Amino acid sequence: MLYLVGLGLGDAKDITVKGLEAVRRCRRVYLEAYTSVLAVGKEALEEFYGKELILADREMVEQEADNLLKEADVCDVAFLVVGDPFGATTHSDLVLRAVKLGIPYKVIHNASIMNAVGCCGLQLYNFGETVSVVFWTDTWQPESFFDKIEKNRQNGMHTLCLLDIKVKEQSLENLMKGRKIYEPPRYMTVNQAAEQLLAIIQNRRLQGLKTDPMFQSGSLGLAEDLQGGMRREPDGASGRRLEERGVEQCSFSRSSKQDHKPAKGIKKDLKSGRDCKV
Amino acid sequence: MLYLVGLGLGDAKDITVKGLEAVRRCRRVYLEAYTSVLAVGKEALEEFYGKELILADREMVEQEADNLLKEADVCDVAFLVVGDPFGATTHSDLVLRAVKLGIPYKVIHNASIMNAVGCCGLQLYNFGETVSVVFWTDTWQPESFFDKIEKNRQNGMHTLCLLDIKVKEQSLENLMKGRKIYEPPRYMTVNQAAEQLLAIIQNRRLQGLKTDPMFQSGSLGLAEDLQGGMRREPDGASGRRLEERGVEQCSFSRSSKQDHKPAKGIKKDLKSGRDCKV
Questions:
Q1: pLDDT tens for residues B159-185?
Q2: Among B106, B114, B259, beta carbon nearest to A115
Q3: Which residue of A has its CA nearest to B109?
Q4: Residues of chain B contacting A130 with CB distance shorter than 8 Å
Q5: Nearest CA in chain B to A125
Q6: Are strands A105-108 and A2-6 parallel, antiparallel or unpaired?
Q7: Could you tell me which residues come within 8 angstroms of residue B46 by beta carbon, excluding any fewer than 6 positions away?
Q8: What is residue A101's DSSP assignment?
Q9: Residue B83 burial by CB count (10 A; 0-12/13-18/19+): exposed, middle or buried?
Q10: Interface touch A124/B130, C-beta < 8 Å
Q11: Cα–Cα distance for residue pair B73/B214, rounded to 1 Å
Q12: B32-58, pLDDT tens digit by residue?
């Protein structure tokens, strides 16, 4: 049996009771570690679950999924995903493969940023299409996420922006030369995302194109996280919580205390660097 | 301290470990019982949590919220919500009141149908505005949910339709006469929702108005639930799982077994009466 277990968004205890029972029952437990990272490290999870976790990176999940599934055919295997298992396409793919191979599976749902974002006070009903703000490179600077935010605005909808995460990525040079040397992990901050958005606005202005009046003021709507579960960067500059999406992340800059007050005014100036943007 | 604890969507064990610890720590535990109903009854929850639960109906939550909060000022109080606590406006309101009264609170998130719907195979990214299909009366037959579905279609987005739930509602006569006599609970089935949608299409055709080509074929996109946690109706006709939204529900007609296969073709004919509609 293959168990796809959502871990929620905070720490080790955000797993459901059902999920924890499944994990403890399994002979092998994989922790999906490339679409998202939990606030607490692998060791904290291992200690709480009482199980050794096998880190599953993109290469492993995408290339060796069939081996993982073969194991699931003979014993209980758990595949742990931060947030909810069906946030990322990759995991739907794993299920489809399991079905093809006739391997039974169970899904154990959990909170995802797709619903937990409701804690900022904005109605979940009124969110339009979710967008991914991807890291620009020198040669690849897509603007499609901006168009989607603008479209949502025109329809009176909020936008949840998931910020890019680059884990175990190769430089173009290393990729070309087939060298398995990986770049240090990168997690987009809200400031970086905002810089890209401002650059798009600037581009369009230079081209004489119109943008939504909201974007004229130079401010973007940013909401702060109302929940704990933070991760401290090595530089201690900002806490950050990652999410379960494909190559995305939602980061937060609040301190790690759990008691909090609801967002009264969720719009903050760009410069304040608040992280979970809606 | 006031704890707002999401219970998830299935049974007693879908609570998170953190949530369960909070519930067991609290002196008083309320179970919100009017925006949604869990697959298992109150007794099953009480047995698993080891706590007596106080059923909180709409009247209680809306009229006596301040009393509930006064308790939370002197002892630990938990407020349990099926799904995630921030699905329904009511619960945001409770938090705002707590803040006003200076009462600390913690939110413990869980899966909501807003994210768990991803299990049907449709990408969560591509959902537009969520709609509520409300029970029509003889004198009130709103069509706004249809307009929103059509708008989402035009934008290439899926729509999650939450189906109405009427719990502890008074008839107009009893309401006028101030008699606290309540109607039996009603949960909209997908067939009922589809009947209303078809009636709208019919109305618009008679008026010579255009509707989306999808609606011409007489079929609607329906997806079946891929997760367990069903509730059997007294007549045994269909299993059904309810959700945490204001006056809404998402119901399912699958059997209660947990092992399942993913939806291969998620579109089903209207007549088949599959319940979780996306």
A1: 999 999 888 788 888 989 988 888 888
A2: B114
A3: A111
A4: 124-125
A5: B130
A6: parallel
A7: B52, B53
A8: T
A9: buried
A10: yes
A11: 54
A12: 877 777 778 899 999 999 999 999 887
- The model's pLDDT over A140-171, given as tens digits with 9 standing for 90+, comes to 999 999 999 999 998 889 999 999 988 878 88
Backbone angles phi, psi at A254, to 5 degrees: -70, 160
Is the pLDDT at A246 greater than 50? The verdict is no
Two tokens, residue B61: 């939550």
**Considering the entire predicted model, what is its pTM?**
0.76
Beta-bridge partner residues of B32: B56
Q: What are the strands of the beta sheet with B105-108, ordered from one edge? A: B54-56, B28-32, B77-81, B2-6, B105-108
Instruction: Give the Å distances, CA to CA, from A209 to A104, A198, A203, B55, B205.
Output: 53, 14, 9, 56, 40
Q: Is B220 left (phi over 0), alpha (psi -120 to 50) or beta?
A: beta
Residue with tokens 């154990």: A108
Please give the structure tokens belonging to residue A131: 């967008």
Contacts of A108 in chain B (CB under 8 A): 14
| CB atoms inside a 10 Å sphere around CB A74 | 9
Residues in chain B: 278
Of residues A224, A212, A217, A272, the one with CA closest to residue A250: A224
A contacts of B258 (beta carbons < 8 Å): 106
Rounded to whole angstroms, the Cα distance separating A186 from A165 reads 6
Which chain B residues contact residue A107 at CB under 8 A? 119, 226-227
Nearest to A111 among B1, B110, B121 (CB): B110
Structure ipTM = 0.76
Nearest-Cα distance to chain A for B48, in Å, is: 11
Give the residue among B22, B79, B76, B29 at the shortest CA–CA distance from B52.
B29
The Cα of B183 is separated from the nearest Cα of chain A by a number of Å equal to 28
Which residue, chain included where needed, has tokens 């707590």?
Answer: B98
Q: Count Cβ–Cβ pairs < 8 Å, chain A vs chain B.
A: 162
Q: Amino acid identity of B41?
A: G
Cβ-Cβ contacts under 8 Å, B151 against chain A = 155
**CA-only gyration radius of chain A, Å:** 20
Positive/negative CA dihedral, A37, A41, A47, A53: positive
